[in-house]
Amino acid sequence: MNRNVLAAEISVAGINVGMVDRETHFVIPGSCLFEAVDTHDTARNIISGWATTIRKCANLNNASVSKVGIAMTGPCDYEQGVSLMKNQNKFDALYGLNVKDLLAAELGISSNNILMKNNSACFLQGEVYSGCAQGGFSRILGYTLNIGFGTAWYLDGEVEDMKLWNVPFKDSIAEDYLGVGWITRRYEEFKGIKVDNIQDVACMAKQDDGIGQLVFNEYGENFVKFLIQQINIHKPQLIVIGGKNHAWDLFIPHVKDRLSDKNISVPIRQAILGSDATLIGAADLLA
Description:
Layout: E1 4-10, E2 15-21, E3 26-27, E4 33-35, H1 43-60, E5 68-72, E6 76-77, E7 82-83, H2 99-107, E8 114-118, H3 119-130, E9 139-145, E10 149-155, E11 158-161, E12 168-169, E13 172-173, H4 174-178, H5 180-191, H6 198-205, H7 211-234, E14 238-243, H8 248-261, E15 268-270, H9 275-283
Parallel strand pairs: 1-5, 5-8, 9-14, 14-15
Antiparallel strand pairs: 1-2, 2-3, 2-4, 6-7, 9-10, 10-11, 12-13
């Protein structure tokens, strides 16, 4: 087994590639390369963009492209490598295509040497190995709050994508209330100000007349309701939250208070590795 391996995270923002030391379970400092890739481009251009970035990263680190562990947004048949993303405002051109085969051909390697998993699952695996979830926990719920809503479950050394983004929740599905998009839309409803990301909402919430905090309290209520459902089902020992954590202090204290009111004492920890966690989890696929 090569100690240092190539790992990549493919998301709406682009592709992030780095070298991971599989003995220490850390990303090698200075090894990463990020490139934006247009999710609305043609399939050919998307695959070419991914392959180009992977090769550039390998060259940057004096490595060859022989195997790659990939964390990728979904939905997707990760084992086969077939994209199932359709009508989600991302990667429509890849729908039904075997991206693993296409990428392998572009890189000049066997598709057997590309292993893929959902990015939420890889994130949680990375935090278990090297981040906030160390400590011998055997049952962990993981959430990533990004444009969408990622969910993962760690049980006795194995981690899996829970695919809870589209489960029925309130009068729609979970992602509609728990993705970052809910926060930006709700803030616009109150203030009439269009905000593109949660960083800006969080900044405004610390300076406005209390409307921002009201929005985050509402979001916290949504999150508490969802968490209680999952806690009752899975009985986790720990909950890990990653993704866009710029608003952590604006809603997590409310979430913890509400859970405490219901005599629920499962600890909630903030992810600490950022994008490195996902690369570490992707590299683990190459065991």
